[in-house]
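> call design_seq(struct)
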């Protein structure tokens, strides 16, 4: 393995479920010798990519966040989308998220939430399977057919009894998204919630999606007009700004 590959493995050991790791845990997860792990972690900590907690364990550092925030798909998109996300959040008082597609997963660029809104797993920078989320379905419905085929051919992670794992049913859902313009994911991630998503476009096509996450007992169709209006507003902002979002 190259040094770069080892460094990436060390950084990749940190996840939502394990945001703080000891040297031994990093070594075990990366399958690197403890001495190598100690050296790499020390260099990453000196640069600011990792920080040492009071317990002696390590977590991702602010320097890495600073670098990540420069990613053009996140920066330009978030800046132009924020006014519309805030409006949607203010009107509904529910969770609002913005995401982009990365292979079989969505990466959340932004999340707005209220203290009394239904709880959700996503946060800015986190990932979720595209097949089970409102933003993911909205993105997959307009993705390259070869990518969709690969995603649907792979095992689909089940989060709840309502998670759709059958490829034929997922294809039907994607067709419904293309027909209506709205993606509805009912209790697929959490039994207490559902999401209503819509694609965001620039001059090149669909580049992102937004969704609102509401309680499971809500009528999702009641939120569709507001979600579509926000998605159209962001799309106009992207198209009018540069014609195409930087990639």
């Amino acid at each position: 393995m190259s040094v770069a590959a080892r460094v990436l493995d060390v950084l990749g050991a940190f996840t939502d479920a394990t945001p703080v790791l000891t040297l031994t845990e990093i070594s075990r997860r990366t399958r690197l010798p403890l001495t190598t792990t100690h050296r790499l972690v020390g260099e990453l900590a000196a640069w600011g990519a990792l920080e040492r907690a009071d317990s002696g364990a390590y977590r991702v550092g602010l320097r890495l966040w600073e670098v990540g925030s420069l990613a053009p798909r996140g920066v330009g998109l978030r800046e132009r989308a924020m006014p519309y996300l805030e409006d949607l959040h203010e009107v509904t008082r529910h969770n609002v998220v913005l995401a982009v597609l990365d292979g079989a997963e969505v990466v959340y660029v932004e999340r707005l939430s209220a203290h009394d809104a239904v709880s959700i797993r996503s946060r800015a920078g986190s990932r979720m399977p595209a097949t089970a989320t409102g933003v993911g379905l909205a993105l997959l419905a307009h993705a390259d057919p070869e990518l969709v085929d690969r995603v649907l051919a792979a095992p689909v992670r089940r989060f709840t009894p309502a998670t759709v794992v059958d490829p034929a049913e997922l294809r039907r859902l994607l067709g419904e998204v293309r027909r209506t313009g709205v993606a509805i994911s009912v209790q697929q991630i959490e039994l207490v919630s559902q999401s209503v998503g819509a694609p965001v476009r620039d001059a090149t096509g669909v580049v992102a999606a937004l969704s609102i996450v509401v309680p499971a007992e809500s009528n999702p169709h009641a939120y569709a007009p507001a979600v579509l209006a926000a998605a159209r507003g962001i799309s106009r902002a992207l198209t009018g700004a540069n014609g195409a979002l930087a990639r």
